[in-house]
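re: ur question from yesterday

yeah so i grabbed the chain u mentioned. its 439 aa long if i counted rite. heres the sequnce exactly as i have it in my notes:
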Amino acid sequence: MRPIAVTLVFGGPSRERDISAGSLKPWVTYLSDEPGVSLTVVFVDPDLRAWRLPERYAYTNTCADFADDLAPDDRLDDDAFDALLRAQDLVVPVLHGAYGEDGVFQRRLEALGVRYLFSGPDGLAASFDKARTYEVLAAAGFPVPVHRVVGREALDEGVGALNEWVEARLRPATIGGLPRACAVKPARSGSSYGVTLAAPGEKPLADAVRCALEHDDRVLVEELLVGTEFSVLVIDGDDGAPHALAPTEVRARSEVYDTRQKYLHGAGALLDTPMRDAGLVAPVRDAARRAYEALGLRHLARVDGFVVDGRVFVTDVNGISGMGFSSFVFLQTSMIGLSHRQLVRRLVERGAGRPIEDAGAVGERAPAARRVHLLFGGATSERQVSRQSGIFAGLCLLAAGHDVRFHLMGTDHRFTEIGLFLALHHDVEEIEDRIRDPG
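ran it thru and got these structure tokens back, copy pasting raw so excuse formatting
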């Protein structure tokens, strides 16, 4: 049987293209040396031009690191790009934000008759637009925050009327010791870009709307949800039915679980998987699964929200979740025994409709050639960077079949062996806390 032809497509026009570059890395790491896969990587630039990505750029941190260095020969015009897509057994769009998560690129793939991973255009469009998501969920019987959609006219005409609506309809709250009147966010954006908790008053509200308008021309003004924040992965099982995994409780270190906390370890939130309150796990999983079904999603998606006074509110659904090495995706699938490699293989096989052919067991490599001890941490200010470098190196060595053991060097220069799960999902200080107090 011939190898499965897979093309990864990343980048795009949104501010989330650098997150897309992070999501690309596990796919390249685990598919590039698969004998049963023929891999191509395509970068889509902010002007929606397609470029075949040279291998040397697959592990760069941002798209700007290589965008100006691409050669004219790497450029794919529309006809060449369509021809490449048609030749694939599977296209994997790791495009976050507009063009990827709104279903636009998927409509192109549908027109070409190409198999692709993740949800279809209608499900993506409904989940990408938060106002539309609330409409679908409300129709399915979900509680949704009291909200209102506004545009630039809210600023042009003055926010007096909007402020009156906020004062009349929304219940203010004190968060972090500060009074807050409402949440303001772009209707169609991700990664917490442009999200603000506005203080009472016209000026703070206008500033928050102005911030959100930098990311979208439609803005959602909604009630504050003060409760237990969660994120849960929903994945199609072998039976074709969606299954919600163990939800992660997010304990943010600021008012908003913002972009910095989501993607910069050492500045991140505290994550508990599963949630600390065992009584919340079942209702959160059930709500996530039902939201996934109501929006018509498939393969895999991430559902975020809050539990408030026992009621589960779904506030954000990510049709193409971030898939960096330390993402919620790999955090939660590891809880059901799926390694990074196994998940990537499973998704490719599900999307392509046939197994990846190799000599070993599905999802496993041959016995490890050697044991490798990987050290990170230390007593310097760069210990968090050391952790990130160590995890990346360790995962690449694991992908090559080595038996990797992770060790944290503390500020006292003592070494402690830790599990991959702990290394992946906690910063250095959190790991040290858990070493001192395992409970």
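noticed a couple things. DSSP finds 15 helices and 20 strands in the chain. also Residues 257-267, 359-365 have pLDDT under 50 and may be disordered.
anyway ttyl
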